[in-house]
Amino acid sequence: MAAKNGSTTIEKEQIFGMAEQEMEYRVDLFNRLTKICFDKCIDKRYKESELNMGENSCIDRCVSKYWQVTNLIGQLLGSNRPPM
Amino acid sequence: MAAKNGSTTIEKEQIFGMAEQEMEYRVDLFNRLTKICFDKCIDKRYKESELNMGENSCIDRCVSKYWQVTNLIGQLLGSNRPPM
Amino acid sequence: MAAKNGSTTIEKEQIFGMAEQEMEYRVDLFNRLTKICFDKCIDKRYKESELNMGENSCIDRCVSKYWQVTNLIGQLLGSNRPPM
Amino acid sequence: MDKSMLGDLDSLPEEDKIRMSAMIDQLQIRDSLRMYNSLVERCFSDCVDNFRRKSLDKQEETCVRRCAEKFLKHSMRVGMRFAELNQGAATQD
Amino acid sequence: MDKSMLGDLDSLPEEDKIRMSAMIDQLQIRDSLRMYNSLVERCFSDCVDNFRRKSLDKQEETCVRRCAEKFLKHSMRVGMRFAELNQGAATQD
Amino acid sequence: MDKSMLGDLDSLPEEDKIRMSAMIDQLQIRDSLRMYNSLVERCFSDCVDNFRRKSLDKQEETCVRRCAEKFLKHSMRVGMRFAELNQGAATQD
To answer: Would you say F19 and C16 are in contact if contact means Cβ atoms under 8 Å apart?
Structure first.
């Protein structure tokens, strides 16, 4: 649009493409984290719709450990930037 | 393309984007429904390639119940429009 | 961009769209293959970080059999072109 | 995926109709490629569990064929029921 | 998904800000539609296992409601913890 | 994902070649981000099952490292075999 020539347009597309991928990455991370901590922490008999105390503290620790695994594997993959 | 200025182009993109997401939503719904009813209804020993009578009626009820769950959760989420 | 009219632009978009889908297809195939052969062949107790001999030969045969299943189902679906 | 699932195009201006139609075509191709991949994954997963040889044996091949055919029939039936519900057909026991 | 998760837009020129904002809106809509589908899939999978009738019985309906409510509360809590970690809050035992 | 998997670009005009190459780059970045997320998900799932503390213990950390390293080696081997099949190498028992 506001670009002066074809090459700049492609550069701009790449910047927007990168931003989009960054966002998709975070959404994907959040969704996987949410799913796996639900699987690990929540009683599937659904006797009530509230989270009980045990579930709540399990969730907090699950998120914290998932975060650490993300960082640990990020280091192994040799990425210099933090995973978010 | 046929838009008079940048803002209108963006509006048009949004309309196409919305239509695309609506379609992706329906395809995603259909694929999940198909997968889960196969898992719930079909004998995985694959003794024949035909669906037998029990499988057929299980499929019909599975689709019907899945539809009801979609509507029920749609109501809980407070969306006013029907899920399809 | 270099297209002479709207219709040609759409044609060009379709060609790029097709190429993109072809690539997404191959990436999707590779990722599913990798995941399923890991599930079928790898000991999840992770006693070491190396692949042992049994795992290595299981992987090779798994990839080979997955390929054959891809071709077999490709034939059933009546596609004339090879799956890759 | 049936094109009719994806709504009415008649109300659009010609140019947008072409673009919308192209978008639907792309979605259908993408969906059918993913379906192909997921069918292979499912039937491989259900039918192949022995990695002592490099080639499928007869039993595995038969299993894969039946699995794929059964899945396709299943998918068609689900599609029919799904279309009925989309058209607001009454559903009683 | 919280919009603040997706980074800072203030440094961009006006035109790009509009476009970036539209992109974020689209991602949020897509994410919420997928979340809806995955919630239905999960609660159906966990709560419905009997296909002798065409309609949900009371017990299944109750199960689905609790499952969905529980998942949404869970998701909010994960979102809060996730945001804290994103902001670099210290995490000790 | 190896760039050579994605076909031949030499026959395209220069402008399209640039665009196609940018598209491939984007796909590779997207694929590697998804791979990262799925690797974390897998190794977390296989190695972490105890939520009595907020931090990984030594055993969990070792398990995660081995899981990730093993998966990466696995993935490279699959990539090699996959490339051979793509090039039409004969496959006999």
So the answer is: yes
